[in-house]
């Protein structure tokens, strides 16, 4: 079955530093990857959609210069939180899909900025 | 074996039908069970949130958890065309723990 590996599963960083989160589809080629953010007890909020080889499409209100998304290959997308601040502390999760395929989610990354 | 199994469908029903969506899981440590609805090009929207076993009802939606069988269900009564979406189950072992999602079931309600 389809597997998406998300790494790291948790990270603590200092305010002002950058953090990179990786999302890999291990056994299928993901033409589209999604990045979500979730605050406690709330729904996942779609941050951006990325298609392999093209620029990510960001949802309204998401700062593209702060949340850098790269989808350089059909199996890897990365989310970099630049100049992280405590308010960026959240749960970030990716999902991957391809045409006529279900969504496969990573297990999420808990980011804590101190 | 995957942590969570969900039939991707697609599922097509006439308006007014009762819809049953299901997921099975393998990890007996899961305590929190959620159902999300996702419309095309949108993020998943939390529909139901259940802790441990039992039933929970919210309007036309009922969530059931059977921990002994490791089986959860979402029932939609009097289905409407606006219910057409992808439904994802998700579960975790506790607050702050990692989530495990099903692949989603695509539902179409035909007027």
Q: TL;DR of this structure?
A:
In chain A, 0% of the residues lie in helices and 52% in strands. With 114 residues, chain A is mainly β. In chain B, 0% of the residues lie in helices and 56% in strands.
Task: Give a written overview of the molecule.
The complex is a heterodimer of chains A (about 110) and B (about 110). Chain A is mainly β. Helices cover about 0% and strands about 50% of the residues of chain A. Chain A has strands at about 5, 10-15, 20-25, 30-40, 45-50, 55-60, 65-75, 75-80, 90-95, 105, 110-114. Chain A is globular and about 40 Å long. The N and C termini of chain A lie far apart (about 40 Å). Chain B is an all-beta fold and about 110 residues long. Chain B has no helices and 11 strands. Chain B has strands at about 5, 10-15, 20-25, 30-40, 45-50, 55-60, 60-65, 70-75, 85-90, 100, 105-110. In chain B, the strands form 2 sheets. In chain B, strands 2, 4, 5, 9, 10 and 11 form a 6-stranded mixed β-sheet that branches. A 5-stranded antiparallel β-sheet of chain B has the order 1-3-8-7-6, with no helix packed on it. Chain B starts with a strand and ends with a strand. Classes of the chains: A mainly beta (about 110), B mainly beta (about 110).
């Amino acid at each position: 079955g389809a597997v998406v590996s998300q790494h790291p599963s948790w990270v603590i960083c200092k305010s002002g530093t950058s953090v990179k989160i990786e999302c890999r589809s291990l056994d299928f080629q993901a033409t589209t990857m999604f990045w979500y953010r979730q605050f406690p007890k709330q729904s996942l909020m779609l941050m951006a959609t990325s298609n392999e080889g093209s620029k990510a499409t960001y949802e309204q209100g998401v700062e593209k210069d702060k949340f850098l998304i790269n989808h350089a290959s059909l199996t890897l997308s990365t989310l970099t939180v630049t100049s992280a601040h405590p308010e960026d502390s959240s749960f970030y999760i990716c999902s991957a899909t391809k045409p006529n395929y279900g969504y496969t989610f990573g297990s999420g990354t808990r980011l804590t900025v101190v | 074996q995957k942590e969570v199994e969900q039939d991707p469908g697609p599922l097509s029903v006439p308006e007014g039908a009762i819809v049953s969506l299901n997921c099975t899981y393998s990890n007996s440590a899961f305590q929190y069970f959620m159902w999300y609805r996702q419309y095309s090009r949108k993020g998943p929207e939390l529909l139901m949130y259940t802790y441990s076993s039992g039933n929970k009802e919210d309007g036309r939606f009922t969530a059931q958890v059977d921990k002994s069988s490791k089986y959860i269900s979402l029932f939609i009564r009097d289905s409407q065309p606006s219910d057409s979406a992808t439904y994802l189950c998700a579960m975790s072992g506790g607050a702050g723990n990692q989530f495990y999602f099903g692949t989603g079931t695509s539902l179409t309600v035909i007027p």
